[in-house]
Amino acid sequence: MPSTQSRYHETYARWKSDPEGFWREAAREIDWFRPADTVFDREAGAYGRWFVGAQCNTCHNAVDRHLAGRGDQAAIIYDSPVTNSKRSITYAELQDEVAVLAAVLRDMGVEKGDRVIVYMPMIPEAVFAMLACARIGAIHSVVFGGFAAKELATRIDDAKPKIVLSASCGIEGAKVVAYKPLLDEAIRLAASKPEACLIWQRPQLACSRAEGRDLDWAQEISKARAAGRKAECVSMAATDPLYVLYTSGTTGKPKGVVRDNGGHMVALKWTMKNFFGVEPGEVFWAASDVGWVVGHSYIVYAPLLHGCTAILYEGKPVGTPDAGAYWRVISDHGVVTLFTAPTAFRAIKKEDSRAELLKGYDMSSFRALFLAGERADPDTVKWAEDILKVPVIDHWWQTETGWPVVGNPLGLGGLPVKHGSPTVPLPGYTVEVLDESGRPVPPGTMGAIVIRLPLPPGALPTLWEAEDRFREAYLSLYPGYYNTSDAGYIDEDGYVWVMGRTDDIINVAGHRLSTGGMEEVLASHPAVAECAVIGMRDMLKGEVPCGFVVLKSGVNRPQAEIEAELVALVREKIGPVAAFRLAITVPRLPKTRSGKILRGTMKKIADGDNWSMPATIDDPMILDEIGEALKSRGVAG
Ligand code: COA
Ligand code: AMP
What we know:
The chain is built from 19 helices and 31 strands. Helix 18 (599-607) packs across helix 19 (621-632). The protein binds coenzyme A and adenosine monophosphate. Adenosine monophosphate binds next to strand 25 and strand 26.
């Protein structure tokens, strides 16, 4: 288990006493084309900017820089049980792939500052795409493949990409998911049309190309290779955006989280050694998807910046082919550290509770399991500790922060584990808990979890072309702080406990989704008068959505038929990732006298938790009706 001789306290104190000095020192790990004039300019941006005046390139640091000494080392190992294939790509090969693709993008007219949307499955080309953009200063925006056309269209309209990079299909377990029809539909829906698309054809399902718009990826690469075309790394300001990643916000409109180049590199590189305890040359695996922040930070950028071998796994924890898949990957590739979401471990536990499948694999390389993306429930953490016999580290962060806010820094020696708590704030973050009026609460008292400004390098400086929304969503409620929208408490030992969200976000299998967005979809159905979506506790996915709908008077079609349409509608508009499978028709929704829907109480009823009658309720009978409706569907009630 982690040692109690941790260097955490001295490291945190060093950061606290001189944050700029701390990050100046961390920045020595990065190759700069020009050093910063100011490590932190408090006058710039919404709360200050890091490494102002510095020039750099993220692709250079993630790829080219390693050619001296690591050219023949695997940079990426692509392991795809769903296509029964594996491919090892050295740093030298990665540089070649990325430089040629970057030249193709250039030839397609992509320039520094242009946006490029990447809508791809978990294949090496997705990583090449991100790095090629970074190389020429284009701003990538990766959209998760499990989102439907409308969600993609919303992101296209916000980012206004010059081009889109995509593939013919994704492979989800035994299913082949055609991506191209979704892309075509998204472009049809979007007001802002990309000039061109570059399409990677997969042998499992080829697609047609739109005349005059779509280019064949492989053909363009061949042509560029034949012509000896390669693009060099351009010099970027440290404060220039590297990418925009959309995440669910409190409305159906996603927030475009901006990540810069310089601070991002400094922070991620710092975490690899000091938080994850990983050395250059070791094999690091984040079992997530490049469409999420975990994929950006810990499948692609951090391991490559650190000179590690990154695993790119196209598969699931179970079913590809069985619940031993993770152990197989660890033993095949000598993985030292796995990072995944607790839900993956719940899935494995459900199928193989005694971890029988573990027995056949050589796990001798494996040192630690890191869990994040949703609350790590103590049962799952204990089970993972029991079967793996390595430290199991819960850590808490968000798309916005880009790297862990609270965690147990294994690289600094680690601290004693308290199951259910992600442990302590990392250097860079002063985490506090405030009450509704913005006053700090005593230890052990629940409240809003906030981070004192400024945010550290790597955290978002703003939202894409939405500075006002950035201020309003994160900075205005508690002046001087960043509002995480998570609720929880800090105990007497300084351990942070993250218990839930204060907004409409729910967490489904580690995927962040807005119930407000789902309500917008339900409300668009012609038979629906009003609706409410809540996140219900789920043994596997942590939470799953449940929609309550009140039908318009005069609608006399069978309820079951309408409910099935609603389920299909959410899948069509948001995507299968929402896992929206339960729409329940009720005569009325419970509300306060001022008309606010009592979603919190409905959730407690659905979860079978104790609940008390809200004093402000309009009609107490309605809660009984909700309980009955849930019971009739086999939900706790
Ligand atoms: N492209 C297209 N569709 C996708 C997709 C993708 N990249 N990813 C998921 N989907 C689809 C799935 O096929 C599924 O569709 P279905 O309703 O037709 O079955 C739906 O979206 C829900 O997917 P998922 O949440 O993955 O659930 P699942 O039931 O297929 O698998 C787990 C459950 C627990 C095995 C799975 O959620 C998992 O592996 N989680 C790991 C956690 C993780 O990666 N979190 C990311 C943040 S760290
Ligand atoms: P995302 O931006 O998709 O990474 O989701 C971030 C949100 O997931 C956080 O704001 C939390 O609500 C939740 N979350 C992530 N990690 C944890 C964790 N370790 N414990 C509790 N909640 C978490």
